[in-house]
DNA sequence: CGGCTATTTGAGTCTAGTCAAAGCCTGTGG
DNA sequence: CCACAGGCTTTGACTAGACTCAAATAGCCG
């Protein structure tokens, strides 16, 4: 038997679906219905093998505002977001904070760590996630090397994002940063209607801490983009992009 | 067996050390004497298995100033630096540039890519490197999963570095950026004598493009650190750190 | 309707950028 | 050995974009 072109001889014959216990089967079904089933890590395994991941997953709910990863703590777990959204950030001693990323459904959290986490993570919406013990996940990936390969792909993608963010933080002006962000967020949440308003789950303060700006500057820049007719800013954290071409041009996003 | 293709079935039994051809053996010996032998990727395999990597490596010399990776080009290769140093960067259309990292001996280049490179790479010193075709390297890693694991470790480490750089670019002042850089460079090149002057292979302009500043600001900040007695700046791109504690305090580097 | 938080707007300041010029190395050739 | 050319670096004067401080406005939820 091969999965993803890799020889897995014997593995499927040792643990057959019929041998899965009731609890495991129940969670496996939850797994198959999960919004994140066909994204990132979980998409690496076929339904037949999914129980290996499902059995390793510890499901939990995180309240809005709760910090579930703390910078400097021993990096014992990975996380996969199934519901909601969170911000990842690093702090300086005097309180200055840089948000290094926002994660949502299907995103994998915890790669940016050696023996200790290099970042903190806080839910900005109620979050449902699967926690994986690093040791346990390593055991699963020893059986399914495709998992390690997928993690590498995820890490590579995150590196690309990180470098684009360095370009943004190091070289772009305030208006370029905001425009880049909106255009990038639009592409991420691209669902159906290109004209549908974007849902921004984060506060202005989060946006500022992500873009290396202050709340006031973000607010002023959004007002300016609104006056230019590029976006429409609603009160309920929704922003409609009225002129994509102009937004992309301002944001210097030709990627 | 094919090398350059994907199928390597049975290769370990077909190609025994005794069966390695002269050229291959010669390069393997070069491999074992390589400055990068016990770092990063190459450290993943024991001497006994090293020839699998050695055979996949295409060695080449890159002149100072030569660009060997171009942003946007198809990402067909990985690179491992054996000698010299290079800068990795992204450009905006109007010429603004952000250097996303410097790489030296033992560093692995090319993870930050999907189907196309997200960055460009230019030698800032004469470089010797091993080029790996991604397909070929994948074939080797299919046989030695430890390689994929090592790549994941490398990517994780790069993510940590990238996040620290985002914190620097988004939240630190000019003097904090320069101090952070010097302290970080010191830790990287930590060889023996803590008082030995640091060798900075890059120009002031590179430093500025790495730190999100201008040449003039970098120069002014270095002058300020010199006047404060924190560093001694020599003309030949060498800088001695006179007061590590103070430098670390200024740079807010407590990691 | 209040009380609270989030956001917007305004006025003034400051850090780092821009423009300009001088100084300093390094290598070359007389 | 010295003069010169070129690029790199430093320093100075001024500017500008983003920050700080402050106040007004707008949502939200009891």
Account of the protein in words:
2 copies of one chain form a homodimer. Chain A has 255 residues and is of the alpha+beta class. The first copy, chain A, has 2 domains: 2-152, Jelly Rolls, CATH 2.60.120; 172-252, Winged helix-like DNA-binding domain superfamily/Winged helix DNA-binding domain (Arc Repressor Mutant, subunit A, Orthogonal Bundle). Helices cover 41% and strands 22% of the residues of chain A. In chain A, the strands form 4 sheets. In chain A, strands 3-10-5-8 form a 4-stranded antiparallel sheet. In chain A, helix 2 crosses helix 3, helix 6 (174-189) crosses helix 9 (244-251) and helix 7 (204-211) crosses helix 8. The longest helix of chain A is centred in the middle third of the chain and has 27 residues, at 145-171. In chain A, 40% of the residues are buried. The model of chain A is unreliable at 1-15 (pLDDT under 50). Chains A and B meet through strand 7 and helix 5 of A and strand 5 and helix 5 of B. Chain A binds a DNA duplex (30 and 30 nucleotides) through residues 173-174, 203-205, 213-217, 219-220, 222-223, 235-236.
